[in-house]
């Protein structure tokens, strides 16, 4: 029932930072590590490439032997061995000799360059004619030129995209220690909520928050479980007491305003601690944060758009930091193509459509208008001290794509 | 063995467009539809909200009854009913009457506005005093103001983010028809390849492409399966013949250059059709595309960075289009902080680190340097007719984040 003051965004962030929970670690096989978060700085066990190797198909030679070579004046060399990738020659090249190599094969001892096949004429089984000069190290990949043994290849907190997985493999790792994925219980409250169907009784509202929150939680790599709860404090209390044992984080939607039917915040206050109730953002004022025996709980609005804004601004950073990601919202500048109207005293998140230079605000009435989010690819962020932004002015934008954990 | 000419990017795109395969459809439950691709235009079965409803907790009234109300001159109304969200009143409000409503409750017949609780004094059980005037439709959400029955809510080819799932639920859908996810067989070729381990024999190379390609394929929502194959045409042929039956698409890495040990393109040519071999891109020249009995096969380079560029530029759009997404690369402009060196005659993809305004090219020697991809968040694209770009000039950039399928 309390809503004594609205907490500013920065006050909320300070509380969340103080109450941030970080998850334990687990070891996963590299093939299952895509988009997981590396838990430690990783130092390479190996050089990559592990040896000087041929970067082209051709003949390993002493570069000096080719310095006089040209099409008119080919140089003859003796082929003393032929090796493919995956095998090595134990023969050493002396002046006047060559070894046939495939791309990736170790450079034989004595050789310092590879001449491409197309500049070589095969005279007979063990004689070739070189028609072009090569310089030392030409067509050679040097040992460790990509990764040196002992190099730090991946940093703690780094998201493992495809290329990071490749670097870890090359560094000799088949398993990797990562942060656990948060298990999140979503409890959607509201007597009026029903599953999607073709016709509704008067008073029934479709539970769209269930599907929205499932998607939002998945987008952070967390593992969601969703339940519905009536506006019944006893039922809610039971669900919360079960959730705080089984899950890493709880999200509720609905029941966060200040009328007597808004039971969520009072119920959490009864069995845990509420750190604040009410934030100075628009949409999304009716939100609270608490803990029940150490399990964080975000109490979001029942209005879909308000709940999405609350999620993106507060829950998303919290869930990502739980997994060891040092997440901060990335603000970029765009020029608005239309006047933006905002609420003085509250940081306003206007849905917008941005390209690389401009943004068009989406005009919509309230925090129930989910189609404004369907059209949008960004939030325009208007400071609480600003009343609006004129057409043609620069404004702050958070692109939804900036929430991605890498591709 | 063939490599008769290098195909330009546009020539390759034309071939791929002609040979594009599109997957069949399937119906999934809405809770499993996150990031799937909608297969049809979806028209709402319902209005959302489904009825005029209270947007605030308070009292439903006739606005006209409050026009004279003020703190000094409160207007008395009779409370004839109390309803919460999820239920409705069958009573009709007449002049001088009010019904207590919670947010989300249907607006009772006769009422045309809601006055917030905080402007109401409760006199006794069935009498209230109104201290502020409300205008007609104040604090009312009108039926259909978000979505109207018959409105197109989601378009064919749209990626289902959280908000699209919410809109579909509100439109009355619990299931949705989407494109199937492509099943992709990745065949990594090379005798020299071994799994990650702490020490290597001379000639052995760690199979990093396995992990890189697993990640790349996952990033397109496709379902990967990965196998290793030696440089052995018989083994490869067997694997390909099995793969073309079981999978929607095949990706190979390695064996695409033109020496006799490069067996992949010849093998595909023997059992299927090769449409081109060799593209005018840098890195990534050694690539081919074919079909084996209608199953598309992308033959990528064995060099990790070359294979990643080939994937991002050609395979990624193909895999996304298979799922019904009308994907095009998004080119944005950035100012380069350093000189960019490129290859005349080939479209060059230089790895870069971009912010919202600038890009810094990553200098690296070859297409084996996976760390250049670890540092990068974009490609700088240099046209085949351009030899380089000076520091301070604008250049074309593809941000890796633009590959995301929405968050």
Automatic annotation (TrEMBL), chains A, B:
InterPro entries: MoaB/Mog-like_dom_sf, MoaB/Mog_dom, MoeA-like, MoeA_C_domain_IV, MoeA_C_domain_IV_sf, MoeA_linker/N, MoeA_linker/N_sf. One of its GO terms (molecular function) is molybdopterin molybdotransferase activity. GO terms for biological process: Mo-molybdopterin cofactor biosynthetic process. Keywords: Molybdenum cofactor biosynthesis. The keyword Transmembrane does not apply. Pfam families: MoCF_biosynth, MoeA_C, MoeA_N. Residues 185-321 form the MoaB/Mog domain. SMART domains: MoCF_biosynth. GO terms for cellular component: cytoplasm. The keyword rRNA-binding does not apply. Pathway: Cofactor biosynthesis; molybdopterin biosynthesis. This is Molybdenum cofactor synthesis domain protein.
